[in-house]
Amino acid sequence: MLGADGGDIDSVVLNFSPTSLTVLNLVLAVVMFSIALELRPSDFARLARAPKPVLTGLFSQFIALPALTFCFVVVMQPQPSVALGLMLVAACPGGNISNFITQRAGGNSALSVTMTAFATVFAILLTPANVAFWGNLYEPTRRILRATEIDPVSVAITVGFMLVLPLILGIYANVARPALAARLRRPMQNLSMLIFIAFVVLALAANWALFLQYASMVAVLVFLHNGLALAAGYGLASVVGVSDFDRRAITIETGIQNSGLGLILIFGFFDGLGGMAVVAAFWGMWHIISGISLASVLGRTKAAM
Fold first, then answer.
1. Percentage, residues of the chain above pLDDT 70
2. Looking at residue 122, which CATH number applies to its domain?
3. Which tens digit of pLDDT belongs to each residue from 266-287?
4. Cβ neighbours of residue 160 under 8 Å, at least 6 residues apart?
5. Is the CB of residue 86 less than 8 Å from the CB of residue 225?
6. What is the DSSP-derived secondary structure letter of residue 303?
C-alpha cells in the first residue's frame, strides 16, 4: 500500500491564478484547433466504413483504462486526492502530442488524429461520467466528490468550449480555406505545443517546493499507471486483431492522456487540490518521456499494414 505515509497532500492547494487558468484554456484550444486543421469530414466518413480501429481505441480509452485504473487504485490504495487524480487523468481523452509520437513510432498517424478528434467529442459526456462513476465507487474518493459537488454539466461545457469548438472550427477552416490551413498547420502545432510546455513549466516553478515535496510520493504510481495505460492499448488492439500499423496508434493514444485538460478541471472544479494536481502535472511530463522512448523503439521496425 502506498497511502500510509501520504502526509497532508489531500489538504494541499497549489497556487494557480484565475488568469493562468484562462491562459491555459486558450493554449489548449489553439492546440486542438491546429490538430483539427488536418481533418476533413471525409475522414470521418471513411472511418465509418471501417470503424474497428477507432472503436477499439475509444473503448480502450474510455472503458478499459478507467476500469483498470479503479482496480489499480484499490490495490495500491494511495491517498484519496492522488487516487482521484489518477481516475481523472484516466477519464481524459488522448493528449494532443500523441499524434506526433504516433508518427515517430511508425504508426497510423491519421488514425491517431481521428481518434483524438472522436475522443475529444465524446469527452464532453464520458470524462465527467467516468469521474463520477469510478470516483463514487471508491469510498475515499467519494468523500472528495461529495465535498466538491462538481456539476457534470459544467464540466461538459468546459470541455466543449475548450476542445470541441476549436475542433469544429479547425475542420471548417480546412474545408473552406485548405491552402491557408496547410500553411498554418505545422507552425501552429509546433508553436502551441511549445507554449503549452512552457506554461506547464512556469506553473510548476510557481509551486516548485510543493511539487518536490510530494512528487516522489506519486512518481511510482504515475510510472505504473502510464505503463498500465500503454499495456491496455496494446493488449486490447492485439485481442481484436487490428494491424500493427493501427495497434501502434491505439497503444500510444491510450497511454498519452490530455493531462492539460486534467489540470484545467482540477483547478476549475477541485480548487487545485494538491494530490490531483501533482498527479496531473507529473503525468504531463512523464507521458512525453515514456511516449517518445516507446516511439524510438517501435520506429526501428516498419509496421505491418
1. 87
2. 1.20.1530.20
3. 887 887 777 888 898 888 878 8
4. 124
5. yes
6. P
